[in-house]
Write a structure and sequence with these properties.
about 425 residues; 7 helices; 4-stranded antiparallel beta sheet; 6-stranded antiparallel β-barrel; alpha+beta
């Protein structure tokens, strides 16, 4: 006998909500939505529209590269990565042997040059005396010519009467010709002596041994060699932290080789990359609130807009965008905005290069120059570490010159004292 299917119970329909109760619920939801919209609109109009925010911001700082001015072998490396160094502190020392030899050669060359120039001045008197001698010789020969000419003139009238023989007349004429030849030779020798004296005077007149161009050129070579000796010790140009040290002891380096970097963290700033549409209301000097991921929201930095980049990041990329191609997609560009930090807050909570930041600009104040305008020029970084005072080199040059001038010891000492007083 087949089974009889059990009848399925039918679900009872839900009771319909009366239309009179649904309408107030919908009106309440609509009212809440409208109130929320109005509230957000009021919040945006009163507060939110005065701020531009980006989390595409990073800490930047100058990267001072340490490079040698002279070549040499590294004898010692005095610092390492993460070390804090002061401006003027020695970082690397090079082998000074080659530089010292070059200095000794330059000193010897200066001494030789001084003696050579002294010879030029001494030759002036000798050449002047030679000119006087040649002038006396010309005067003597001119007297011989005049005497020989008188002899010829006296004999010519007597030749026709036979009082003077032809042979005697011939001897007188030969004597006159020899005297004239001697006069021409003496005059040529005088001209040569005068030219030689003038040439030597051209090398010496208008100056003295100490200021002679040859001496000054040799003195400059001594100073250059002395500077090369000083530059075998590399100094820190600024105060900062050492990074990217690559130099090793024993390494042979050439001038300009990067050895390490010094980062002056106290000069750090924040580079905030805002979208181009966010720059409309930005002005130079507007206040900026910054939060670092390192410290979180518990530390807030105060800053101000100091300037804006000359172009977008894509414009200066290694491979810039080729927007003239057929397949093109519009991408909103970002422009780097330079934000300077409060030095006191930065000292209390230090940052490192490359750390992420969140920047919020208060654009309510519109009194400053637009970010598109050129900012006020700022003084560039400066260091006086490389301003080597050459007083020691000047004294060295002075001692060499005076030591080879042949002056008495008392005069040399007095000159040295005068130079020392001038230097002080």
């Amino acid at each position: 006998m087949p089974d009889t299917p059990t009848p399925t119970p039918t679900a009872s329909p839900a009771p319909a909500v009366p239309t009179s109760k649904r309408k107030p619920v919908m009106l309440a939801i609509a009212g809440l939505t409208l109130a929320a919209g109005l509230g957000y609109g009021a919040y945006w109009a009163a507060y939110q529209r005065h701020y531009e925010t980006t989390d595409n911001a990073y800490v930047q700082a100058p990267v001072v590269q340490i490079t040698p001015q002279v070549g040499g072998t590294v004898l010692s490396v005095l610092v390492d990565d993460t070390d804090l160094v002061k401006a003027g502190q020695p970082l690397v020392k090079l082998d000074p042997a080659d530089a010292k030899l070059a200095l000794e050669r330059a000193q010897s060359q200066l001494a030789q040059t001084v003696r050579e120039v002294r010879t030029l001045y001494a030759n002036n008197a000798a050449l002047s005396a030679n000119v006087n001698l040649r002038e006396a010789e010309v005067a003597r020969v001119q007297s011989d010519v005049a005497r020989a000419a008188d002899d010829v003139n006296r004999r010519k009238p007597l030749l026709a009467s036979g009082a003077v023989g032809g042979e005697e007349m011939k001897h007188a004429e030969n004597t006159l010709a020899v005297a004239k030849s001697a006069l021409a030779g003496a005059q040529s020798a005088l001209a040569a002596a005068q030219e030689q004296a003038a040439s030597n005077r051209a090398l010496t007149e208008g100056t003295n041994v100490e200021k002679h161009p040859n001496v000054e050129r040799a003195a400059a070579a001594v100073r250059e060699a002395w500077l090369a000796v000083q530059r075998t010790e590399l100094l820190a140009p600024v105060t900062g932290q050492v990074a990217r040290r690559t130099v090793q002891v024993g390494q042979r380096i050439a001038p300009g080789t990067p050895l390490m970097s010094v980062i002056p963290l106290e000069q750090a700033w924040v580079e905030a990359n805002f979208k181009e549409v966010q720059l409309r209301q930005m002005r130079i000097g507007q206040p900026v609130k910054l939060v670092a991921d390192l410290y979180g929201n518990k530390v807030e930095y105060d800053g101000r807009i100091a300037g804006v980049g000359a172009g977008t990041g894509a414009a200066f990329a290694l491979l810039p965008a080729q927007n003239a191609t057929g397949n093109w997609i519009k991408v909103v560009q970002r422009v780097p905005v330079r934000v300077e930090l409060d030095a006191r807050q930065f000292a209390e909570h230090p940052l490192r290069v490359g750390l992420s930041m969140e920047a919020t600009v208060d654009v309510a104040a519109q009194t400053g120059a637009p970010v598109q305008a050129a900012p006020t020029p700022r003084a560039s970084n400066h260091t006086d570490v490389f301003d080597i005072h050459s007083a020691e080199a000047d004294r060295m040059v002075h001692d060499i010159i005076t030591g080879h001038l042949g002056k008495p010891a008392g005069r040399v000492a007095a000159s040295a004292a005068a130079v020392a007083t001038t230097v002080r």
